[in-house]
Amino acid sequence: MALVSDFDSRTLRHALGRFATGVTIITTVDNHGQPVGLTANSFNSLSLDPPLVLWSLRVSSPSLPVFESSARFAVNVLGEAQLELSRRFASAVDDKFSDGPWGAGDGGVPVLAGCAAVFECERVSQQRAGDHVLFVGRVLALSEAAVPPLLFQAGHYRMLGEVL
Fold this sequence. Notes:
- The protein has helices spanning 9-16, 64-69, 83-89, and strands spanning 21-22, 24-29, 35-40, 44-47, 52-58, 72-77, 102-104, 110-112, 117-129, 132-144, 150-153, 156-159.
- With 164 residues, the protein is mainly beta.
């Protein structure tokens, strides 16, 4: 494998896509109490003490102003059975929350039942970094279930297989 030092954003995106990630739906509520959510695979742990997580959102996202003004958000880590919800929240469909077993979490933020994990967070910081905004949240509550996670790698959804 030869290193490439002269590359464009498409080449970088392709190479970054080789890294398998989990798939999440990040949710919050706007100033009128209406739910807002989107599919993201930019989620990561940051610190155990204090309990911090991070995720990022494109500066060009129409949802950015809502997340920038919201004090709370939830990270719903999807299971394999939730692939269609991932696609729904990655689309421009009007009422994304009309499908799925949604409930109200801390501060009314939507949380999804049946996920591999859910992290209910208080936003502690946000910072613009290139063409994205990084959101750091303190985990206030969490849940987890022993379900296989939904993965994304090389531009495709993947499912976790057994290692022999």
